Structure of Integrator complex subunit 8:
Amino acid sequence: MLLNELLCISKVPPGTKHIDMDLASLPPTTAMAILLYNRCMNQFQQEKEVTDNILKVLKEQAAESILVLEGALKLNKDLYIHTIRTLDLLAMEPGMVNGETESSTAGLNISTEEMQCQVCYDLGAIYFQQGSTNFDLYRNARDKFFRTKELISKIGSSLHCMIDEKRLAGYCQACGVLAPSDSSSQPSTPYSQIHSCLRSGNYQELVKIFLEDNRMPTLPIQFRQSVLRQLSQKAQQGDEVLDEIYFKVCACNNVCDVMQGRPVGVQFTQMLLRPTKEKIDFLLEVCSKSIHVENAPESSKRKMAYFLKNLCLGLEDLQFVFMISSHELFIALLKDDERKLLIDQMRKRSLRVNLGTKLITSFYDIPALASVNIGQLEHQLILSLDPWRIRQILIELHGMTSERHFWTVSNKWEVPNVYGNVILGIKDNLTRDLVYILMAKGLHCSTIKDFVHAKKLFAACLELVTEFSPKLRQVMLNEMLLLDIYTHEAGVGLSGERPPSDLISRVRGYLEMRVPDIPLRQVVAEECVAFLLNWQENEYLTMQVPHSLVQTNPYVKLGQLLAATSQDLPGPKEGRWAATDLWEIVVQICSVSHQHKRGNDGRVSLIKQRESTLGIMYRNELLSFIKKLREPLVLTTILSLFVKLHNNHELIVNNVTAEYISIWPSSFPNFQSSVDFEAVAVTVKELVSYALTINSNNHFWLITQADIYFATNQYSAALHYYLQAGAVCSDFFTKMVPPDVYTDQVIKRMIKCCSLLNCHTQVAILCQFLREVDYKTAFKALQEQNSHDAMDSYYDYIWDITILEYLTYLHHKRGETDKKQIAIKAIGQTELNSSNPEEVLQLAAQRRKKKFLQAMAKLYF
């Protein structure tokens, strides 16, 4: 009521919409009255005590009030508000309403900055409240709050602005998180940085922020706990990496709690029930960064000292206790007598444990203490990767008992059978255990790509067996060669750096080795041949490898034929003897033998099919070998062979294409009935998928993958790969796709895919891509009325005038005036005029091709 009276006094006619009034042209007191009224309108919406009817009316007028306040921010003049004196003047002399009182400086002066500061704050609050239903309003709120901060810093404290600066700071922090500013002028807060890390998964940076905040805490404990809960929820979903991050953030929070006099949390205590060296190291790092010993007050020093002392008392493993007690922070915070007292307490605790053990031993008359010691040493033996420490543990164990085989302590220690028989034949128990464990641990480290530890373990094992067993010495040299191959291929080899000549010589030496009675692992030969193929040592494989080795080692024979075939490409077909030999070998590998049985009636029935034993290896062994290859030409060669074999099946309707497929024999007498074509089809799919993991931008492989999907009626996936093949060789269709990629066959298959997906307008456009435009298919497609594509939105991509004229006729016939106009507009483009030079017409067609293919890629990628 008071505000309405103020409006009347300030000469605002009742029923007038404030949004229609120009504030800049109004007297200062009138404009100020309108501002006050609309400010209060927005504030009252947040008051729960207001009755529902009033609140409904206020909400209906809220949008207009917001627009009025936004308009007020454009004013660049001071405003005046009525005081008791000016109201008295108005009461005594009503005629002065149009006179000096409202137009002059009478009343209380409100500067432009003060007015804008208050209005920005009010608008920010209402935008923030409405942001839950419209996220963009959070950005508006952010801008208004940041502007309020700027104005406050400019005008200082003001009696006329009612702004809660703590609340404003909270608003700014919340907006910084909900709608981060792109402007570099707005400094990022720890809150926004933390939320950014959580969104992007940059957890290492998150830990750094918490560590930095521990130096001078600014984050509230509630916020810290909220982040910890989020990490806990994500960790429970199965992300193992987050377990470590969860511990680190929990450690930062608990050290912060300790420094602020709060108790240690239950989660943190539970985590330290299973301590590790990494956990203790990080915890000590947090403690060191959370206190400056030189400048810290005495109370903070005592809090940290008590925490470290209690930490030591809570740990059972003396190794971890020693890590803490020898740390410089522990030494700096605890006095000498405190450290001595702690050591005495630890000793008494140890004595209590030993005393209890002795009582039980004497009572039951069993060697409990020895058993405990053996168990502890076995546990250390399982965990240790240090060869010297493993040897020391085994010496201690064998000193306690000579009846145990300690190589059986862990069922994870696995040594290949070809090696196990030799190792277990060692007579000395200690040496046998040591050799077996060193090799088993080394093989495990190699499997998990911990090549540094694997090399140390193998080197120690080699040094040990050299003294007594030439056979095991050669075994270890072979394993170290395999390890060096793995190390190179997983390291610098990934960037294309050639292996050192010494490694290549060792690989050749292994293949040519003629030492009798040496146990050999098949995987070493596989990796050596794959290594030579990957680094294009074709001359050695085709010309220098001993003939006897080719006859005895199937992988060398396969490698020789692959190298020779790849080397011949693209050569004359008559000289491709290697391709024919390779074809025959693979056909034999993929063949099956039939087992028959004659019944009592004399009829012969088929019992089962089995993999043929005529091949030099089984199909799964061949596939395993191929998946070790990375050289593109070799992969292309073997892939084209399998594609050719797949296409020779009499039931294949849609052939799959591959590069160099013509080098293989066109027919093979009497093999069709014995080849397992189902296995061949599965192999082709696996090979293409593997090849694309090596190079996902090889357009020939992508076309092969697309053909496989096309042949199996997966048309959307087929289009995806056809388009991807075109995209990778044209910089995402910014250049023309080479004609050897988008052949007529590929275009026709894309047309069929679109047709079966009911995208008939796309069919018509693709018909233009053929060397001779297929008008019949295009017209038939355009006649379809149940098209699932964008239809007339694609007309801009048509450059063939005949198709556009047919579209115009078709829409006219159907009475579709709007679509007819779109087609006429497309025909009317000057660059499609048939009188233009051929170069202009070609340029227009190419431009439309590129745009259409880009639109298709966005649809199917």
Confidence is low (pLDDT under 50) at residues 46-50, 97-104, 351-369. The chain has 41 helices and four strands. The beta strands are 79-81, 108-110, 592-598, 604-611.
